[in-house]
Amino acid sequence: MMKFSILLIIVSGFLHAKVKLGIDRFFEQPQLLNYLENKRIAILAHHASVNTQGEHLIDLAFNHPQIHVVKLFTPEHGLRDLSDDWIEDGIDEKTSLPYYGLYKPERRAPSQKMLEDIDVIIIDLQDVGMRFYTFATTMALTMKAANEAQVQVIILDRPNPIGGFVQGLTLKNNLTKHFISYGKLPTRHGLTMAELARFYYREFNLSMPYFLVPMEGWSRKMIWEETALKWNTPSPALISPENSYLYALLGPLESFNLAVGRGIDNSEAFFIYGAPWISLSESQELAQKLNKLSSFIKFSAYSWKPTRSRYQGETCYGVKVVHFEFKKIHSFQLLVKVLHIFQEMFQERFEPTVKNEWTHRYFGHKKAWQWIQEGKLTKIINKAQRQTKRFKSYIQGLLLY
Fold this sequence. Notes:
The chain is α/β, with parallel strands linked by helices. It has helices spanning about 20-25, 30-35, 55-60, 135-150, 195-205, 240-250, 280-290, 330-345, 355-365, 370-375, 375-395; strands at about 5, 40-45, 70-75, 90, 100, 120-125, 150-155, 165-170, 175-180, 180, 185-190, 210-215, 270-275, 295-305, 315-325.
């Protein structure tokens, strides 16, 4: 079999068209299924690895007469359930197959021993389009492990829920080896998982055979609500497409000392931002300043007590997003301006929660937070625009849609 191949498709340009997922197309390919017969298969999947009927890839593959599944791998947040803890190894209750967590302090990729009895790894993960979301890194590290073992990889593609738009600063070499900053990607990379696989294959000079199963009917202009697909939660806080849109817009605020709406039900995750050290009057002033940034996103003063995570049980004052038109907002530029307002208003009270290296990784440049503090927003925005242009040129030959 060729080292790299793609199933040919015709991509529809109509919005609100029915998108067919890679998982659905995979089981419609008799030639591919025949090839997999008698192969020992591992699957890297999670909660959202389901087809358009809601059937999980593990169950479909396990019950298919031509597919012999040997073991399972799972990324951050778990296999069938959703968790914010380290993912331990275990036995899948529905299939009795062993699964291995790839999100724990001592393991972020399959070991070579785990791959000794494997011929093919099938990967089906729902990404959310931001570099610091960890599923793409898990895929990249799994591909590198497979390359070392010369195990074939098959990637079943899914939509980038925030569309194929590229924005933000591109990582440099000294920031590209961390779990939230892996590879020379901009903050918002605009790629699907299959396209990211092609990017990593080239970026890391891989040589193992791999195969992509693209979608049908998806276009780069689509965000999730235009796909006619049901949203399947990929992680505990992103319970709706709207949560994922706001995660893309303002998610890096979580790397500062703010509560961001994580709670027992997560309905307000990334809709609200605040802290006990903000007063009621300051929350009102903050909302007024933020509302001057754009007519496409509006805030109101807000107070709440987080039910879990940061500042649990404490009264927090801040702001809530009450209206936004996601496709009309330049996410990176908005983030830079919002951060500057927070910094300008609250000075030393507003600070990164962990060492600056994490802030660098979120933004993609070691001086980004310094420039925001100094009010050099134009410098950051112009730099991001130049880097975005170069990145878009670099990925032209990698795009599937």
